[in-house]
Amino acid sequence: MSKKRRTWTPEEKATIVLEILREENTLAEIAKKHEVSQQLLSRWKTEFIANMSAVFNKKNEDVDKLKQEHEDEKELLVKKIGELTLDVDWLKKKQIQISQMKKKER
């Protein structure tokens, strides 16, 4: 019988890597505790160390790009809401005018 592959959330990975970095237990003990291979833990640690400078990067391009895209989309939606509001107001006005014209014809 094969083992079901386990998936880890980024938060779980970070917690385990911090436990490795504290060096209170050996890598083998941590691997046994969390039922993860030592090679995988070493890979997570290496990846964490390689990318930890991104945490302190104030000009993180990905975050800035996402923020800009969000602002652009928000601006577009606000503009569209304004256009639709004008259309609805115009239609309401025309409906009143048409109903008044029909009353006069009777």
Automatic annotation (TrEMBL):
Coiled-coil regions, chain positions: 49-87
Q: Which Pfam families does the entry link to? A: HTH_Tnp_1
GO BP terms: namely:
DNA transposition
Q: Which GO terms describe its molecular function?
A: sequence-specific DNA binding; transposase activity
Q: Which UniProt keywords apply?
A: Coiled coil
The protein here is known as Transposase
| Organism, as annotated | Eubacterium aggregans
Lineage runs: Bacteria, Bacillati, Bacillota, Clostridia, Eubacteriales
